[in-house]
Amino acid sequence: MATSADPARRTDHPGPSSSSAPSRRRVLGAATGTGLALAAGLPGTARAADLPLLGTYDVVVIGSGAAGMTAALTAAKQGLTCVVVEKAGTFGGSAARSGAGIWIPNNPVILAAGVPDTPAKAAGYLAAVVGPEVPADRRQAFLGQGPAMISFVMANSPLRFRFMEGYSDYYPELPGGLPGGRSIEPAQLDGTVLGAELARLNPPYLPVPSGMVVFSTDYKWLALSAVSVKGAAVATECLARGTRAALLGQKPLTMGQSLAAGLRAGLLAAQVPVWLNTPLTELYTENGTTAGAVVTRNGAPGLVRARHGVIVGSGGFEHNAAMRAQYQRQPIGTEWTVGAKENTGDGIRAGRQAGAALDLMDDAWWGPAIPLPGQPYFCLAERTLPGGLLVNAAGARFVNEAAPYSDVVHTMYDKNATAPHIPAWLIVDQNYRNRYLFRDVAPTFVLPDAWYESGAAHKAWTLDALAQGIGVPAAALRATVNRFNSMARSGTDTDFHRGDSVYDHYYTDPAILPNSCLAPLWLAPYYAFRIVPGDLGTKGGLRTDARARVLRPDGSVIPGLYAAGNASAAVMGHSYAGAGSTIGPAMTFGYIAARDIAAVAGA
């Protein structure tokens, strides 16, 4: 794999394969969705008009994730009446489960921290990362309105943000890339501001250790707490924060919990209702304009009307097995995603039934994952820390393990077309296990028996025995490890350039020299972890323009219909600019959509 300065490492390729993907997307975009609607047994518009009226608002928002709640808050502050309808019994969606990194160039938080960003740098970088597939006006809308969105959210909710210092852009060597990063994350929030509503916050993907207050940027150091003075100091500070909060009677929230709770608090103050357990059935159209939504509330169908617009922010389709099988490469399924379980593409299907075009349905916010019992584990630090390597079914390395996580899975799928690369295997030794946190298992501690019983983890006292356990050629695995060890000692990965990019060094061990990404495997026993194409959610959906308006296949606008977040095709295209490239655009286009509705309504 090339360095990140080389276009070969970028993910602005057209999709699963350069030969087949464009025609496939044209087919998907041109589809009308009529058959899908009939198969689902959705009521027609005439019948929908006869349903009980549940309410009439200026704006109806579908989904209570980052996109939906930002949109609703914006609409309310523009003087519009608004309701949020949410399928789940909790609010927050996938955003509440996440680390809540937010990638928005030139935002006021990073500029106040002295980050040397400029609009020209940001525009050049995003263009280089995304490529021409995403229209320039959409990219510019995101870059131009993102900073204002952050200022708006801070002015109209208890949310505050912190600079994720040192978390590099994913391709910092490209023009405009920043090695120090542009990402921010929510500051600590006291959950008591929500009162009883706190009980309805969607829980995190992984709970924070009891008694601690942990930010996303702390995890890189917590993984090193057994071998690093700074790591130990960060762990101590996390515990001290938890102690302070307990003494003050607070319920401290960080990451996605803070983001979702803060937005919900803003909605409470603005008196915006959020209807939980209220799934979308279809969009309601009157005289060619989207004028509301058919939902199920209290177990019965009903119509909620929208005077000026409907904003779809209902998430992706990661938990819809049929849609994943239809649109995405195999092997694929619903058991490898960490997205909210309610994300089954309801808004995308409803939009398609209403005539919307679809884009990027073949892609997702990918990342290598270990299919542990109960739920998959999305690997960040574990595959990057020195002393580990990824191999395919032939026992050979095939990728820079420290590359951006979406790149690693794109490579797995690309190479799997000609030779088995799914599953892959993360190989480490006992020296690695003695030094670093693995998921939530402390260094030297025994891994859970269930990991081994499920086949997600294997352990053996020799590489040959490990190879036999995971079904790869022993001689090939030995040769691969020997070559890797030789390069690790020299500090230069001549095969896949691990460590050439500043980004590669984020989740690594600075005590390891000459390359913090590379260390030899030498101490038995050895471990192998099954690696599959996991994701944070799908990234394809309704095609939108720079104003977040939903478009038909011919490029015309569907009046009254808007989309943001993973229900819409991502402004990042097939790539991933930096930490928070999901949430940053989701919030921004929710903000853009609501402001556009207000502007049109006031015209």
Automatic annotation (TrEMBL):
Gene3D superfamilies: FAD/NAD(P)-binding domain. The keyword Transmembrane helix does not apply. One of its GO terms (molecular function) is 3-oxosteroid 1-dehydrogenase activity. InterPro entries: FAD-dep_OxRdtase_2_FAD-bd (IPR003953), FAD-oxidoreductase_2 (IPR050315), FAD/NAD-bd_sf (IPR036188), Succ_DH/fumarate_Rdtase_cat_sf (IPR027477), TAT_signal (IPR006311). It is an enzyme of class 1 (oxidoreductase). Its cofactor is FAD. It holds the Pfam family FAD_binding_2. PANTHER family: 3-OXOSTEROID 1-DEHYDROGENASE, FUMARATE REDUCTASE. This is 3-oxosteroid 1-dehydrogenase. The lineage of its organism: Bacteria, Bacillati, Actinomycetota, Actinomycetes, Kitasatosporales.
